[in-house]
Amino acid sequence: xxxxxxxxxxxxKVIIRCDFNVPIENGKIIEDQRIEESxxxxxYILEQKPGLLLIISHLGRPKGKNVPELSLEPIQRxxxxxxxxxxxxxxxxxxxxxxxxxxxxxxxxxxNIRFWAEEEDADDDFARKITEGFDVYxxxxxxxxxxxxxxxxxxxxxxxxxxxxxxxxxxxDQFMKIKNPQNHPAVAxxxxxKIETKLPVIxxxxxxxxxxxxxxxxxxxxxxxxxxxxxxxxxxTDFKPDEKSRxxxxxxxxxxxxxxxxxxxxxxxxxxxxxxxxxxxxxxxxEIIDAIVSSKATYKLAGGGESIExxxxxxxxxxxxxxxxxxxxxxEFLAGKELPGISALN
Length: 346
Ligand code: 3PG
Fold this sequence. Notes:
By secondary structure, the chain is an alpha/beta fold. 38% of the residues lie in helices and 17% in strands.
């Protein structure tokens, strides 16, 4: 897989697929880390004076309809501030066709790619129309690389050159470290909701990890469904406030989990261990974060939206080797699935 350093962008017409799927309320961006993280790649390419720069992203799930609340307008404004250049929002493919007369001082941002139904259909004609006249495709959307969508898996097929952006490459490198941990014992902590997504993750982690500590809603569901796991998988043995409500893991479980974390040399964490947004039921998640932070593990990675929120609340990103902004993509990667957005760059 090529990266930006392998390509000369000068005079080239470049598409960057970003993931600007950020929380927006009443037209205001609440948290813009994903935009900020893509700046390295955007600025790196701009410095080489490309012939044209088009950025593509999705926002939310408009399902092929033009949903005004999911317009990229707030992102256009924020991006223009950050790059200190004009950013033009392109609303139709006809407008996109006209951008070919544009110049390198401008950045073009295509309106929410999911406003076009063809995007989620991974439509080739759509990909062809978008790429017409463009030379290079750069993916900076690792966090959307589990989606077999046109701008992720098809667009790269219709350009001369394609490569991973700086953030994409970094995410992939970090995830490779947890796929086959070099240092053992390796401990995974899996919490949060959506048992159907996390069961394949637990199963796959059993191959290379010594311990998989399971908490949160998925643990409750596993217990309710009487699911059976191998001996590497530890489920909670007590709960707060009680066995019936199970809103947090209990003190005995916290101690059992902490013991494994203390010995770990590699740690990966995705998903809270309880209802951490309620102070009363945040103890399990907080204690586990503290245990990860103070462990002597040589590599500590956390990911997923709720884990990020919990780290912000109870700790600090700098205490981890890597905090990933990928949620679904991280889980599919950990489940051992092939991600269309990675394959498309190979
Ligand atoms: C994410 O936020 O995880 C990515 O942007 C993917 O979004 P999606 O789950 O709507 O495809």
